[in-house]
């Protein structure tokens, strides 16, 4: 899926020539693959679910710091936006350290951000501790969880992504009442401290992201030379003074001290060879780690800016443009819908069953259904993706026209179901750039989504300040969304026509 060669024991990459001997892994589409789905499911609960419940903390911050609603809302927007915006940079960590270590470190940083936010003295401190620190940690844990699901699945990739991303809706149900209870019982500062402890479960989820390893059949007799140094040593020394195969591979023979026969070696101090061995092993590890970091950076850089740059793919550029305009419509609905309910005097009905809960429930159902449909042999994932997008943009246009709870509930259900196409985004991205560049490409896509989530709500609020209505906010966001869909559809048609011409030319040559 990406250019990283990670290993269960955190071993370093092997010779690329060995790739010819790789055999299909038994965990593809089964076995440990479903553990990866479970891990990604809990990552979505802890990250996306927590972010959807930040409205509870936003009320507490308003009462505590007495700042404007716009300034206080930037804390949540920063956290959500940075989680997605850092996607391209997280691709560098994945190429260098692998998904497991990236997610593990991200869990630690995210938990640290929650804990430090409990001691914040102002909203501006929350910008750093929660918006930046916790958001960056969330991004480090989120992208590997999505990437690893795509790596473990081939035939059921859309279904697997759909099941894992349903954690967003489940998390919205679990985290909202949890934060409400913790704030009521212990105060918002202790609630954030406890939530930081809960977020450490991201480290457990990261540890479950076991990389795929392929066994190789090696019959090189040079590797079977018996060692002369102590049993813990990885170097082998021959009695005639020449270095063993492992040291010749590392190019360290010129720097090694030649040893004599075993009788002369027994007369020497036994500690000195062990010290030399430990030093050589440390140098070897540092050298291989340095090569790994350089290769990861080189692959990451070439993927974005080199001759194999993703930006040379016009279809992928159109997809980025769509992502910049699409995600804000979904986020704006979650943020401004509670205030719309108050303006329409529907608070009593909404308290019984909130409209946002309707979106979350149907959103879970939509991800699973769309994933199953997209995996059918006779169905194109692009057709499902585009139809869901058109349904969502129509729902955004219709929502301001509804002034009753029943009407809003129907539209919210449609929004929740159609937005289930989020689970198809990794599959569509892989179709555009290939499995090798999925980590970098999907990082760019979620970065565009993050920019949309960061700027969309303030833009909608600015329109409301001018018109004193939310209607035009939804109309403008829906219009921009439609522009993105049309632009993507045009590029898709151009791609289909080009492929048809190529097939026709190839057929004529035959």
Q: What's the gyration radius in Å?
A: 27 Å
Helix content: over 70%
What is the string of helix and strand elements? HHHHHHHHHHHHHHHHHHHHH
DSSP summary: helix tally: 21
Uncertain spans: 1-22, 217-264
Number-wise, the strands total: 0
Largest sheet: none
**Mean pLDDT metric:** 77
Structural class, please?
mainly alpha
What is the CA–CA distance across the termini?
34 Å
Beta-strand percent range: under 5%
Global geometry: globular
Walk me through the structure.
The chain has 510 residues and is mainly alpha-helical. The protein has 21 helices and no strands. The protein is globular, with a radius of gyration of 27 Å. The N terminus is likely disordered.
Brief characterization of the structure:
By secondary structure, the protein is mostly helical. It has helices spanning 32-52, 54-65, 69-85, 87-97, 99-117, 123-152, 157-165, 167-186, 188-199, 201-207, 245-250, 262-266, 271-305, 314-343, 347-352, 355-374, 381-398, 405-418, 425-433, 438-467, 471-509.
Question: Notable features of this structure?
Answer:
510 residues, 21 helices, mainly alpha, globular, 73% helix
């Amino acid at each position: 899926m990406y250019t990283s060669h990670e290993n269960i024991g955190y071993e370093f990459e092997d010779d690329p020539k060995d790739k010819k001997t790789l055999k299909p892994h038994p965990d593809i589409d089964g076995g440990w693959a479903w553990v990866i789905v479970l891990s990604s499911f809990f990552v979505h609960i802890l990250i996306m679910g927590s972010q959807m419940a930040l409205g509870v903390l936003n009320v507490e911050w308003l009462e505590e710091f007495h700042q404007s609603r716009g300034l206080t809302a930037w804390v949540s927007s920063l956290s959500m936006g940075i989680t997605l915006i850092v996607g391209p940079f997280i691709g560098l960590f994945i190429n260098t350290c692998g998904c497991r270590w990236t997610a593990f470190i991200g869990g630690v940083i995210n938990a640290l951000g929650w804990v430090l936010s409990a001691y914040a003295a102002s909203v501006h401190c929350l910008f750093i501790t929660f918006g930046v620190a916790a958001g960056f940690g969330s991004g480090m844990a989120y992208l590997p969880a999505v990437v690893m699901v795509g790596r473990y699945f081939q035939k059921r990739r859309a279904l697997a992504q759909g099941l894992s991303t349903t954690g967003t809706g489940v998390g919205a149900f679990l985290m909202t009442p949890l934060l409400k209870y913790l704030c009521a019982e212990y105060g918002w500062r202790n609630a954030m401290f406890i939530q930081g402890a809960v977020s450490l479960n991201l480290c457990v989820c990261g540890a479950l992201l076991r990389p795929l390893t392929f066994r190789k059949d090696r019959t090189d007799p040079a590797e079977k030379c018996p060692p002369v140094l102590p049993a813990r040593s990885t170097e082998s020394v021959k009695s005639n003074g020449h270095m063993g195969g492992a040291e010749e591979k590392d190019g360290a023979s010129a720097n090694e001290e030649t040893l004599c026969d075993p009788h002369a070696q027994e007369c020497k101090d036994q500690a000195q060879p062990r010290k030399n061995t430990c030093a050589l092993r440390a140098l070897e590890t540092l050298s291989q780690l340095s090569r790994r970091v350089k290769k990861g950076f080189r692959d990451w850089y070439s993927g974005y800016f080199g001759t194999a740059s993703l930006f040379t793919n016009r279809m992928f550029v159109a997809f980025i443009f769509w992502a910049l305009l699409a995600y804000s419509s979904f986020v704006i609905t979650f943020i401004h819908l509670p205030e719309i309910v108050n303006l329409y005097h529907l608070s009593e009905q909404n308290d019984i069953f909130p409209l946002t809960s309707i979106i979350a429930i149907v959103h879970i159902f939509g991800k699973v259904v769309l994933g199953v449909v997209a995996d059918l042999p006779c169905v194109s994932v692009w057709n499902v993706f585009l139809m869901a997008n058109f349904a969502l943009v129509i729902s955004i246009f219709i929502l301001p026209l509804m002034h009753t709870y029943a009407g809003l509930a129907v539209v919210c259900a449609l929004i929740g179901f159609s937005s289930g196409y989020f689970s198809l985004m990794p599959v569509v991205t892989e179709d555009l750039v290939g499995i090798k560049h999925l980590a970098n490409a999907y990082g760019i896509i979620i970065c565009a989504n993050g920019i949309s989530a960061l700027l969309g709500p303030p833009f909608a609020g600015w329109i409301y300040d001018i018109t004193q209505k939310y209607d035009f906010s939804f109309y403008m966001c829906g219009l921009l969304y439609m522009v993105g869909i049309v632009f993507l559809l045009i590029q898709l048609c151009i791609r289909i026509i080009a492929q048809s011409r190529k097939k026709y030319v190839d057929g004529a040559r035959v």
